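Translate sequence into C-alpha coordinates.
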Amino acid sequence: MTDGVQNKSFITLIGNDGCDFFSSLCGQTDEKGGSSMLKSLLNSCKGRIYVYLATKDIAEQFMQDAESEGFTFGDGVKPTEREPSDIMAINRDMTINYVGFVGHLAYQNANKIGDEPLVKIDYRDCLKSSK
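Result follows.
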Protein backbone atom coordinates (compact mmCIF):
# COMPACT_ATOMS: atom_id res chain seq x y z
CA MET A 1 0.00 0.00 0.00
CA THR A 2 1.38 3.40 -0.89
CA ASP A 3 0.93 6.37 1.36
CA GLY A 4 -0.16 9.11 -1.03
CA VAL A 5 -1.71 11.28 1.67
CA GLN A 6 0.05 13.77 3.83
CA ASN A 7 -1.58 13.47 7.21
CA LYS A 8 -2.44 16.99 8.35
CA SER A 9 -4.34 16.22 11.53
CA PHE A 10 -5.86 13.50 13.64
CA ILE A 11 -9.34 14.90 13.19
CA THR A 12 -10.69 17.93 11.45
CA LEU A 13 -13.80 19.58 12.81
CA ILE A 14 -15.80 21.57 10.33
CA GLY A 15 -17.84 24.53 11.53
CA ASN A 16 -20.44 23.59 14.11
CA ASP A 17 -20.73 20.11 12.61
CA GLY A 18 -18.24 17.28 12.77
CA CYS A 19 -17.39 15.19 15.82
CA ASP A 20 -17.64 16.03 19.48
CA PHE A 21 -15.25 14.50 21.97
CA PHE A 22 -13.66 12.08 19.53
CA SER A 23 -10.96 10.90 21.90
CA SER A 24 -13.60 9.74 24.36
CA LEU A 25 -15.03 7.48 21.64
CA CYS A 26 -11.84 5.48 21.25
CA GLY A 27 -11.90 2.28 23.19
CA GLN A 28 -15.64 2.29 23.89
CA THR A 29 -17.33 -1.07 24.16
CA ASP A 30 -20.80 -2.15 23.17
CA GLU A 31 -23.33 -3.96 25.35
CA LYS A 32 -21.63 -7.31 24.56
CA GLY A 33 -18.19 -6.05 25.59
CA GLY A 34 -16.90 -5.68 22.02
CA SER A 35 -15.40 -2.58 20.50
CA SER A 36 -17.84 -0.02 19.13
CA MET A 37 -15.43 2.67 18.05
CA LEU A 38 -16.63 2.99 14.44
CA LYS A 39 -20.31 2.87 15.40
CA SER A 40 -19.63 5.57 17.98
CA LEU A 41 -18.04 7.72 15.30
CA LEU A 42 -21.15 7.40 13.17
CA ASN A 43 -23.39 8.30 16.10
CA SER A 44 -21.30 11.30 17.14
CA CYS A 45 -20.17 12.74 13.82
CA LYS A 46 -22.14 14.58 11.19
CA GLY A 47 -21.11 14.45 7.58
CA ARG A 48 -18.81 12.15 5.62
CA ILE A 49 -16.22 10.27 7.66
CA TYR A 50 -12.90 9.43 6.03
CA VAL A 51 -10.43 7.28 7.95
CA TYR A 52 -6.73 7.58 7.14
CA LEU A 53 -4.80 4.31 7.44
CA ALA A 54 -1.10 5.16 7.59
CA THR A 55 0.38 1.66 7.37
CA LYS A 56 -0.61 -1.78 6.14
CA ASP A 57 -0.84 -3.05 9.74
CA ILE A 58 -3.14 -0.19 10.76
CA ALA A 59 -5.23 -0.73 7.62
CA GLU A 60 -5.60 -4.43 8.40
CA GLN A 61 -6.59 -3.60 11.99
CA PHE A 62 -9.22 -1.17 10.70
CA MET A 63 -10.67 -3.84 8.41
CA GLN A 64 -10.80 -6.35 11.29
CA ASP A 65 -12.42 -3.78 13.58
CA ALA A 66 -14.96 -2.80 10.93
CA GLU A 67 -15.89 -6.43 10.37
CA SER A 68 -16.20 -7.17 14.10
CA GLU A 69 -18.61 -4.23 14.43
CA GLY A 70 -20.77 -5.55 11.59
CA PHE A 71 -19.64 -3.33 8.71
CA THR A 72 -19.49 -4.69 5.16
CA PHE A 73 -18.78 -3.27 1.74
CA GLY A 74 -21.88 -2.09 -0.15
CA ASP A 75 -22.12 -5.43 -1.96
CA GLY A 76 -22.12 -7.37 1.31
CA VAL A 77 -18.49 -8.53 1.20
CA LYS A 78 -16.76 -8.61 4.60
CA PRO A 79 -13.95 -6.07 5.04
CA THR A 80 -11.25 -8.69 5.67
CA GLU A 81 -12.03 -10.33 2.34
CA ARG A 82 -10.67 -7.31 0.45
CA GLU A 83 -7.43 -5.36 0.50
CA PRO A 84 -7.56 -2.06 2.38
CA SER A 85 -6.59 1.30 0.94
CA ASP A 86 -4.91 4.24 2.67
CA ILE A 87 -8.23 6.07 3.09
CA MET A 88 -11.55 4.36 3.73
CA ALA A 89 -14.98 5.88 4.26
CA ILE A 90 -17.47 4.64 6.86
CA ASN A 91 -21.16 5.11 6.14
CA ARG A 92 -24.33 5.32 8.20
CA ASP A 93 -25.77 2.21 6.57
CA MET A 94 -22.97 0.15 8.20
CA THR A 95 -20.94 -0.06 5.01
CA ILE A 96 -17.41 0.98 4.22
CA ASN A 97 -16.02 1.98 0.86
CA TYR A 98 -12.81 2.89 -0.89
CA VAL A 99 -12.05 6.55 -1.49
CA GLY A 100 -11.01 7.31 -5.07
CA PHE A 101 -8.78 9.99 -6.58
CA VAL A 102 -11.21 12.84 -5.98
CA GLY A 103 -11.78 11.67 -2.40
CA HIS A 104 -8.02 11.70 -1.80
CA LEU A 105 -7.90 15.28 -3.05
CA ALA A 106 -10.81 16.15 -0.79
CA TYR A 107 -9.06 14.57 2.20
CA GLN A 108 -6.05 16.79 1.65
CA ASN A 109 -7.79 20.02 0.69
CA ALA A 110 -11.51 20.15 1.46
CA ASN A 111 -13.62 20.69 4.54
CA LYS A 112 -16.87 19.64 2.90
CA ILE A 113 -18.15 17.16 0.36
CA GLY A 114 -21.23 18.73 -1.19
CA ASP A 115 -23.18 20.23 1.70
CA GLU A 116 -21.81 17.79 4.28
CA PRO A 117 -18.79 18.39 6.51
CA LEU A 118 -15.80 16.13 5.86
CA VAL A 119 -14.57 14.53 9.08
CA LYS A 120 -10.99 13.26 8.82
CA ILE A 121 -9.79 10.59 11.25
CA ASP A 122 -6.27 9.21 11.58
CA TYR A 123 -6.86 5.66 12.78
CA ARG A 124 -3.42 5.23 14.35
CA ASP A 125 -4.20 8.00 16.84
CA CYS A 126 -7.48 6.37 17.67
CA LEU A 127 -5.74 3.04 18.21
CA LYS A 128 -3.24 4.73 20.53
CA SER A 129 -6.08 6.28 22.53
CA SER A 130 -7.87 2.96 22.91
CA LYS A 131 -4.92 1.23 24.61
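Note: The longest strand covers residues 116-122.
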